[in-house]
Amino acid sequence: MEQQAICTCWPGATVWLTGLPSAGKTTLAHELAGRMRDDGRRVEVLDGDEIRTFLSAGLGFSRADRHANVQRVGLVAEVLARNGILALVPVIAPYADSREAVRERHRSSDTPYLEVHVATPVEVCSVRDVKGLYAKQAAGELTGLTGVDDPYEAPGAPDLRIESHTQSVEESAAALHALLTERGLA
What we know:
Radius of gyration: 16 Å
Largest sheet: 5 strands, parallel
Strand order of the largest sheet: 2-3-1-4-5
Structural class: alpha/beta
Mean pLDDT: 93
Number of helices: 7
């Protein structure tokens, strides 16, 4: 089987996709990753659920634990990006100060960082309810659901805002790819 050559000539970057649970962050990240890999790009998706299972095992959902989780993911993303990999990070990161600390880490190492707000209304997310979290919260089986009974601080000025409820996954990935191209990262 013939393997496609992987280009190492592109600069690395971190693309942080923030938004509510079931907003479409991970779906969008995987769609974009496939496109970028087809172009010979080195890409890693740092999925929030996988990170919590392995890198952040033992952390809860208090503000301090959420901050620690975001900083751990941010460190891994920055190291990957600094070494020429496009790191796609579909992680809620509900607090603006946590996301800003990750942006600052990237800035201090001169590593490109883009914040993408997958701005899907909670009403749409609760209908999608990919993991059943909204149903559990409504049934009283879960508390601390981001955007419902726990805060979510939406980015005021993200590099890109995607309203996944008004466009297809393919259209959303195309918009993000266009931003990467515009910034010389694709």
